[in-house]
Specification:
about 70% helix; 11 helices; single chain; mainly alpha; about 0% strand
């Protein structure tokens, strides 16, 4: 756990106090989920700790960083550069924190929208970011927190459903990746239900 302490000290100097508090919440929630699902705790904690390392970066810098490192940027991300903090975070985790584990980098890159066929770590980070103890705004949080320790896939689907529902009501811009991911997990559940009938 020596590296995690090193990352933590470095990160603390680069993000705001509230964001840092959220980050620690995500790190420990990711560790709890990793324990529950028999996943590597250190990898889950590293992903949790670094998932928002680009969040405080100015929007133009996020775009610049992604372009420089040939990270694809969608039209919706150009219009709403705050969405880029996940992809930019993966670049910073690699360049500034020397993270070489592709699984950790991928989980950081997709932690806001999700992607179809997520890995265990992708799902752990995606869920931990949503349910960490400091979160209190999202609807159905108590139910989702319980679900998280019963099924990662069903929890991802539920979070995506609630997120899309919320953005539709608010007329917020929806990243197509979020819709794609939701459809993927909804279809998987429907297929599983048909098999069980």
């Amino acid at each position: 756990m020596h590296e995690i302490e090193k990352y933590r000290k470095k990160l603390k100097r680069h993000i705001e106090k509230d964001r840092y508090r959220h980050t620690l919440g995500v790190m420990y929630t990711a560790a709890s989920l990793a324990m529950a699902y028999g996943y590597d705790i250190k990898k889950a904690m590293t992903a949790g700790l670094l998932h928002d390392c680009a969040k405080s970066m100015p929007h133009e810098k996020k775009i610049e960083l992604c372009e420089k490192h040939h990270v694809p940027i969608t039209d919706i991300e150009y219009e709403n550069p705050f969405l880029l903090h996940a992809k930019a975070g993966a670049v910073i985790a690699r360049k500034k924190y020397d993270i070489e584990d592709e699984e950790i980098l991928h989980a950081i890159a997709v932690h806001t929208t999700g992607v179809p066929a997520m890995s265990t770590l992708d799902m752990i980070l995606f869920i931990a970011d949503y349910i960490e103890p400091g979160r209190d705004k999202a609807q159905n949080l108590p139910q989702i927190r319980q679900m998280a320790f019963q099924s990662l896939e069903h929890t991802v689907e539920k979070i995506l459903y609630d997120t899309l529902h919320y953005l539709n009501e608010k007329s917020g811009r929806i990243d197509p990746a979020t819709e794609l991911t939701y459809e993927y997990y909804k279809n998987r559940r429907n297929i599983a239900n048909e098999h069980n009938e």
